[in-house]
Design a protein that fits this description.
Number of strands: 9
Helix content: 40-55%
Strand content: 15-25%
CATH architecture of the largest domain: 3-Layer(aba) Sandwich
Structural class: alpha/beta
Order of helices and strands: EHEEEHEEHEHEHHEHHH
Distance between the termini: 35 Å
Shape: globular
CATH class of the largest domain: Alpha Beta
Amino acid sequence: MSAEKSYFDKIAERGQLVIISGPSGVGKSTVITNYIAEHPNACKCVSVTTRPPRPDEEDGEDHYFVTHEEFEQLIRSQQLLEYVYRGQTGYGTPKKAVENLRSAGRNVILDIDVIGATKIRTICPDATLIFIMPPSWTELENRLRAGNNTEAQIQNLLETAQEDVLCAGQYDYILVNDTVEKTVRRLGQIIHGNRYSRNSMKTFLESYIESEIKPQSDLADEILAINQG
């Protein structure tokens, strides 16, 4: 057997970008936390925020804490994959941090709302979008009522949840969070399957073609030119 080619080192070496969305109360954070605990190669990306740090928070660990002026500059210079204002507080995902993690082979998992997911898909077309749904509307309402929400807040969250679910068809995958254990397992199946998708194998394929393919027909030469263009 011949020596293994160097391009085999490039198989799925770039980390995936996985966007998780779903209604408030559906259990996104729990699913993501449990998945990352079971898969050390997966991670979240530290977000940027304009709110002041809490006593137990550290800059660069919990969030990157910036001023409103710095946050606006990040937006203008297109250094955020997505951002949102909640009241007067800005939150955003730093583009460079995500890219550095992916280049190091880490799978980055982000909990992003529907609007933010749409923005990221435009910037990163290779991102995988996964929507998590509650097993029933009654179950979602029960989960929201179990929290410290007022009736007005619950109704507002349910209204937003309806709008979110109506956008679920724009996602690559839809998971029903009947139990956390099952949902974490299904999430793992998706990410593992995507490891050898066209997007994940792009670098390997380019290196393979450069090393191995010597066009011997006009059509092959034309296809190669199109791929390189």
